[in-house]
Amino acid sequence: MNDDPTRHSRWRPLRLLQAEMDADIAKIYADAKIDGIKPSFVQELLRLHARGPITITELAKSVQRTHSAVSQKVAAMRTAGLVRTTAGADARSKTVHLTARARRVADRLAAEWRATEAAVAEIESEIPYPLSQVVGDIEKALARKSFHDRIAEKLAVDPDWT
């Protein structure tokens, strides 16, 4: 029987921690009777609230996500009744608009965003090496040698790869 390499993961704890924190944010929404809002929607909803209707391409660029990922998220937010889309300037683009329902909760979502950022800052002040510093340090390490190159080097000496 082959050993399962996925049993060990250095990144899984971070993913699980983020999922747990997102679940706590979702509980804040549930406690406040703000239905249908997922924590993963909030950045895009707030960006739309701040900038007004923009295309999926513009929204994706502004939140630093792929067009495909934002297009899928817009579809989910449309199903939830938070946004609507209209034809863009050309036949391939769509403009995303907040619905009245989303506009009614936008200020509350902005308050939650600020409170969440303050809570994260509080947590970072309690630990010896803040996550925001970790991310910056990882970015510097990747500037020295890309993740791709690091993986390729490991694969070059792995007999299962060649």
Structural notes for this entry:
- There is one protein chain.
- This protein has 162 residues and is mainly alpha-helical.
- It is built from seven helices and three strands, in the order H-H-E-H-H-E-E-H-H-H.
- Strands 1-3-2 form a three-stranded antiparallel β-sheet.
- Strand 2 (83-87) and strand 3 form a beta hairpin.
- Helix 3 crosses helix 4 (67-79).
- The longest helix has 27 residues, at 100-126.
- The chain is globular and about 55 Å long.
- 13% of the residues are buried.
What's the arrangement of secondary structure elements?
Blueprint: H1 12-31, H2 42-51, E1 54-55, H3 56-63, H4 67-79, E2 83-87, E3 94-98, H5 100-126, H6 131-144, H7 147-156
Antiparallel strand pairs: 1-3, 2-3
Short description:
This protein is mainly α. It is 63% helix and 7% strand.
Largest sheet: 3 strands, antiparallel
Order of helices and strands: HHEHHEEHHH
Range of strand content:
5-15%
Query: What is the terminal separation in angstroms?
Result: 21 Å
Shape: globular
Class derived from helix and strand content: mainly alpha
Uncertain residue segments: none
Overall mean confidence score, pLDDT: 95
Let me know the number of strands: 3
Number of helices: 7
The helix content is 55-70%
Radius of gyration: 20 Å
Widest sheet, order of strands: 1-3-2
Q: Keywords, please?
A:
162 residues, mainly alpha, 3-stranded antiparallel beta sheet, 7 helices, 3 strands, 7% strand
